[in-house]
């Protein structure tokens, strides 16, 4: 990769924008866990979280309120504070000369902003102009499975249903699920304040805004982002997204129709060697991936790969992945790692 697209060749000055949220805290943990080359780390958030103390490599860091001055002399901004905040600070970040890796949906579909899953389309990083988008969590998990399979036989159509945990709505939604679940057990009527409906012993169709085609925003993110990541704007994909009473990690039921029959044995061989993917299944005991299997872990787990009995060209499978980790924070850190000069020697 051309050096102009890489991060500086030295320990970096890094800032996490949105450091007090669930993904922000996971970013902090991953930077330490993966020994990312940092000289100075700044934690940024709104005035409400300013002053909070977080730990990094044995040192206590105080969260600072984000201002125009926050981005000066910073090499890398890992942004995970939501679309409106990313839009608000984008110009200040880019004018400071920092590289911005953004976890929100604000810029994902802009033509000059690469949308990256490192295991799938790393070459697209060479198109960045200081801003790189991290895909939606469900899209990342799906792309890890689709990409290696479609390299073998082209995909004709995908039908996916997602089962999305409270973590997808942030730390407050996770806390609310815990609180309201106890209220149900205590015989009370749960009243949700974070989500539109209670998730306690309940589920509901994803609460993102409905679009004119009667698909919700979350579903259309999966459609449009998957097309962009796989480089196939005409890819046929339909999605139904559901919120479920799980604290952390998303699941997906995926039906993939190919242009010709796909031998199951080959599908296993491909996915077993695919980066970021593991096979987890025990047909004898009817045991397949569950959210608890992937919580706090990097790989996504795939299982129950089978022939679609209604279509000889289609396979069905089930997957689970940690939304906060690979579905958000880990993917962002992996993008940054791809831009380290040492990885291009």
Automatic annotation (TrEMBL):
GO terms for biological process: 'de novo' L-methionine biosynthetic process; diaminopimelate biosynthetic process; isoleucine biosynthetic process; lysine biosynthetic process via diaminopimelate; threonine biosynthetic process. Gene3D superfamilies: Dihydrodipicolinate Reductase, domain 2, NAD(P)-binding Rossmann-like Domain. Its EC number is 1.2.1.11. InterPro entries: Asp_semialdehyde_DH, Asp_semialdehyde_DH_beta, NAD(P)-bd_dom_sf, Semialdehyde_DH_NAD-bd, Semialdhyde_DH_dimer_dom. It catalyses: L-aspartate 4-semialdehyde + phosphate + NADP(+) = 4-phospho-L-aspartate + NADPH + H(+). The active site is at residues 137, 250. It is an enzyme of class 1 (oxidoreductase). Residues 13-128 form the Semialdehyde dehydrogenase NAD-binding domain. One of its GO terms (molecular function) is protein dimerization activity. Signal peptide: none annotated. NADP(+) binds at residues 20-23, 48-49, 167-168, 323. Phosphate binds at residue 108. Substrate binds at residues 164, 217, 243. Keywords: Amino-acid biosynthesis, Diaminopimelate biosynthesis, Lysine biosynthesis, Methionine biosynthesis, NADP, Oxidoreductase, Threonine biosynthesis. Pathway: Amino-acid biosynthesis; L-lysine biosynthesis via DAP pathway; (S)-tetrahydrodipicolinate from L-aspartate: step 2/4; Amino-acid biosynthesis; L-threonine biosynthesis; L-threonine from L-aspartate: step 2/5; Amino-acid biosynthesis; L-methionine biosynthesis via de novo pathway; L-homoserine from L-aspartate: step 2/3. Belongs to the aspartate-semialdehyde dehydrogenase family. Homodimer. Catalyzes the NADPH-dependent formation of L-aspartate-semialdehyde (L-ASA) by the reductive dephosphorylation of L-aspartyl-4-phosphate. This is Aspartate-semialdehyde dehydrogenase. It comes from Prochlorococcus marinus XMU1408. The gene is asd.
């Amino acid at each position: 990769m051309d050096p102009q697209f890489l991060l500086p060749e030295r320990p970096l000055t890094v800032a996490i924008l949105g450091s007090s949220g669930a993904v922000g805290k996971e970013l902090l943990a991953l930077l330490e866990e993966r020994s990312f080359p940092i000289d100075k780390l700044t934690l940024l958030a709104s005035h409400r979280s300013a002053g909070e103390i977080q730990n990094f490599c044995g040192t206590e860091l105080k969260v600072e309120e984000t201002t125009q001055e926050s981005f000066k002399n910073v090499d890398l901004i890992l942004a995970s504070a939501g679309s409106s905040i990313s839009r608000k600070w984008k110009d200040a970040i880019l004018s400071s000369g920092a590289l911005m890796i953004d976890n929100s949906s604000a810029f994902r579909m802009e033509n000059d902003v690469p949308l990256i899953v490192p295991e799938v389309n790393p070459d697209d990083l060479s198109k960045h102009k200081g801003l790189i988008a991290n895909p939606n969590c469900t899209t990342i998990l799906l792309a890890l499975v689709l990409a290696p399979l479609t390299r073998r036989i082209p995909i004709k159509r995908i039908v996916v249903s997602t089962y999305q945990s409270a973590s997808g709505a942030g730390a407050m939604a996770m806390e609310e699920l815990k609180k309201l679940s106890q209220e149900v057990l205590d015989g009370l009527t749960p009243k949700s304040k974070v989500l539109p409906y209670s998730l306690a012993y309940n589920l509901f169709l994803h609460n993102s805004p409905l679009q004119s085609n009667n698909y919700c925003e979350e579903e259309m993110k999966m459609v449009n982002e998957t097309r962009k990541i796989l480089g196939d704007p005409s890819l046929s994909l339909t999605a139904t997204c559901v919120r479920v009473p799980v604290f952390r990690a998303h699941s997906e039921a995926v039906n993939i129709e190919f242009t010709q029959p796909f031998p199951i044995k080959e599908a296993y061989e491909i996915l077993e060697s695919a980066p970021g993917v593991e096979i987890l299944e025990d047909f004898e005991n009817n045991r397949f991936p569950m959210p608890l299997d992937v919580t706090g872990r990097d790989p996504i787990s795939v299982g129950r790969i089978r022939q679609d009995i209604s279509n000889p060209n289609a396979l069905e499978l089930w997957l689970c992945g940690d939304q906060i980790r690979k579905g958000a924070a880990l993917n962002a850190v992996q993008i940054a790692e791809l831009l380290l000069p040492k990885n291009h020697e």
